[in-house]
Write a structure and sequence with these properties.
Layout: H1 8-20, H2 24-31, H3 35-42, H4 50-59, H5 64-80
Helix pairs in contact: 2-3, 4-5
């Protein structure tokens, strides 16, 4: 299993806010969002939505796809941990089963 990836919100903090010397309050103003919203995001308690990805891309001159892909990768990692708990098996239609000789 892949090592636990960092929550994308933590990356907002380390790649966008900290290098520019911005506080959460200042970042929230730039993004036109409430301070508690950005605080939850940078502390890994709020996921990056498509709208937030667009806001981040505009304000910090990145791509929205970057943030969406980071979030999707993080989400996929989380759900892969519970894969066995889903109790699912591949569907094989009757008559298509391959026998091994």
């Amino acid at each position: 299993m892949i090592d636990k990836p960092r929550h994308p919100g933590l990356m907002v903090k380390s790649l966008c806010l900290e290098p520019l010397g911005l506080s959460v309050s200042e970042g929230a103003k730039l993004l036109h969002i409430a301070r508690p919203t950005l605080s939850k995001l940078v502390n890994g308690r709020l996921n990056i939505s498509p709208e937030m990805a667009m806001r981040l891309s505009i304000v910090f001159n990145t791509s929205a796809e970057l943030w969406i892909n980071l979030q999707a990768g993080y989400d996929l990692w989380r759900v892969q941990k519970m894969r066995s708990k889903l109790h699912l098996h591949p569907f094989v239609p009757q008559g298509l089963a391959v026998s091994v000789h």
